[in-house]
Amino acid sequence: MLNNKTIILGVTGSIAVYKAAELASKLTQAGAKVEVVMTEAATKFVSPLTFRSLTNRPVVTSMWELASEFSIEHVALAEAADVVVIAPATANIIAKLAVGIADDMLSCTVLATRAPVIIAPAMHSGMWENAITQENVAKLKKRGLVFVGPEYGRLASGGMGQGRFAEIEKIIGTISQVLGRKGDLAGKRIVVTAGGTQEAIDPVRFVGNHSSGKMGYAVAEAARDRGAKVTLVTAPTALPDPAGIEVVHIERAAQMRKAVVKAVTEADALIMAAAVADYQPKSRARQKIKREATGASLTLNLVRTPDILSEVKGDFIKVGFAAESENLLANTREKLKRKQVDLFVANDITVPGSGFGADTNKVTLISKDGKAESLPLMSKREVADKILDRVAGLLRRKKKK
After folding, report:
1. Nearest-angstrom CA–CA distance, 44 and 54
2. Which residue, of 179, 208, 243, is where some domain finishes?
3. What CATH number is given to the structural domain containing 106?
4. Does 184 fall in a domain?
5. Are 132 and 228 contained in the same domain?
6. What is the pLDDT of residue 401?
7. pLDDT tens digits for 229-264?
8. Catalytic residue at 209?
9. Among 4, 92, 209, 331, which one carries the catalytic annotation?
């Protein structure tokens, strides 16, 4: 999504400037062409050489730098942008943009550009909560500028409050979302499930599986980056909530079923990437089961959990996942017929790099007519896009009918 995109990174005089260096580095690593524009105040915190070294691009600090390719005709930078990101943004730059002041290269660029603008504020909580700042933010939001953060946390002053620079991954996620607004899934509603459900035995123990949630999160983020409005229903994972996605946290299969039923009422597609536990304890102990009280063994009475993919019905595309350790195609085709889905994503968890917790996956896509397409080992994000290519095609064919 970020590859070959021109991102104007505006850096203003906040103590969080050093975090902007990390942002510039990660955007560059993702394949973006990052053009950094620093205000004079920003250069007091970090040298322009830092950003030049990270982006391999000249850094603009003034409209009067004759060495810059953008210095004379400042609108050239604005016209080249796919997106403008001001990170960190001070109360000062927010105020200037709200009233249209253009007295430096950054404010001129924002005023001149037709590209979307994202603002990541970072300031003392008192400045952020000030009524004037909030009025300025409201004005800019009304004009279509996108804000990410600030977050609550420890501030440079040592106190706690709202004003902390947003996490880098959250900013990058917001950039990806904004750039994907006109993607092939624009206007579509996609529901994705992720993670492994946990069926409680007692307040301490549960029946579960090894799912990390990485595949479902990759699908959700890829759908977001292609313009879809995404709801992610997730069991417990170690992953942060993706930016720009409605996230519903659940623990048990029954809770996931309830959340999915609610989410799919207006959905165009349901992608069930979650590893839902097949069984749950018939009853849950209210107190921790003591080892000393159970003797040499503990017997659990297990009952089936809801089969969400089979039970949830509606006029939407349904995609299921099958993690198998043997007879991959035969077992998945049987599920395909029984669950009445449009596409199944099957993976052999015994294949190196394709098991739980890995960052890669090797899957076979099996369509409703039983035809199978085996994909090579690739990153889970690449797998996600292959799945969404199929979903987009199914939605187009559905529209024509």
Report:
1. 18
2. 179
3. 3.40.50.1950
4. no
5. no
6. 64
7. 999 999 999 999 998 899 999 999 899 999 999 999
8. yes
9. 209
Picking from 127, 121, 130, the residue whose alpha carbon sits closest to that of residue 19 is 121
List pLDDT tens digits, range 75-91.
Answer: 778 888 999 999 999 99
Confidence band for 314, pLDDT divided at 50, 70 and 90:
confident
Angle at 182 between CA 179 and CA 184, to 5 degrees: 115
- The count of domains in the chain is 2
Residue 10 or 69, more confident: 10
- At 230 the three-state DSSP class reads strand
Token pair of 51 as six digits? 């950003």
Radius of gyration of the chain (CA): 25
| Cα 133 off chain centre by | 28
Plot region of 370 (φ>0 → left; ψ -120 to 50 → alpha; else → beta): left
Whether residues 153 and 247 share a domain: the answer is no
Structure pTM?
0.84
- Compute CA 79 distance to the chain's CA centroid, rounded to the nearest angstrom: 28
**Residue 218's domain spans which residues?**
189-400
Residue type present at position 367: S
Total residue count of the chain as it appears in this document: 401
Distance between CA atoms of residues 387 and 185, nearest Å? 13
Beta bridge partners of 161: 153
Residues 196, 172 share a domain? no
